[in-house]
Amino acid sequence: MTAKTANKVHVLSCGAMSCDLTWLLLKAGRTMRTRTEHQRPPEWYSCTTHCVLVETPEGTLLWDTSCPRDWETRWAPTGLQEYFPYDQVSDEEYLDARLGQLGVQPQDIDYLVLSHLHFDHAGNIGMFTGTGARLVCHEKEKEFAFGFEGAFNGAHLKTDYAACDFDTVSGDTEILPGVTLIEAPGHTPGTMSMKVDLPETGAMLFTSDAVYMGDSYGPPATPAAIVNDLNAWYASVEKIRGIAERSDATVVFGHDAEQLRSMRLAPDGFYA
């Protein structure tokens, strides 16, 4: 029996936020300094953001939606714009522009899958209102994101997603041929990663924020300031590592600037 695979993967680089690296990496010798280095300024990092467009025989899937054009005013009630300014982005790098460069309109998306509902992943869900796209997140992510009082909780901002009707999944779920959503909580209660099997490239495993960077992945795994459940996070990293080793997957981290720059990026390149 022939294994089911997707047809093509487009990695859409959507610019970068700037942030203190400590938010992403709690690593001795880099973000945690020795006494001889205590006066050295903190390292600010180019926190890249990307989306993934997956073409399959049974439909087109978009993984995450990056940050919105109106980020400064939308994030103002939370103060996040001061800690994560989306200030390393050109007009051609916003999600709507990136899709347009591929000749893709919002109505062409059959499945919009959110790895989780933080402000830098769910910021452009509104582009797909009324398009017929099936919105998907993890059931525990939906429960948390809609369950707290007030307009925001940390990096969950209800104005991004409150008007949306999500279908939910739990466990590891094959959602389309060659596309498996992987339950990977810890960063948030319902964070997911995504494994895509391709006929030529083989497996690609997009971690989202289950693993921020190569430095996070290790081994040993190195956590971050933004982790909802540290025990779950460690378990998810090792789960991802096991899946990657068994499938010989290319692991693509959630916010690794150096790795993203080394990849085949849309609209000029893709993976098949």
TrEMBL record:
Residues annotated as transmembrane: none
Boundaries of every Metallo-beta-lactamase domain copy: 48-255
InterPro entries, per database record: MBL_superfamily_lactonases, Metallo-B-lactamas, RibonucZ/Hydroxyglut_hydro
Keyword field: Hydrolase, Metal-binding, Zinc
Molecular function per GO: hydrolase activity; metal ion binding
Necessary cofactors: Zn(2+)
Pfam families reported in the protein's UniProt record: Lactamase_B
Family per similarity comment: Belongs to the metallo-beta-lactamase superfamily.
Entry protein name: Beta-lactamase domain-containing protein
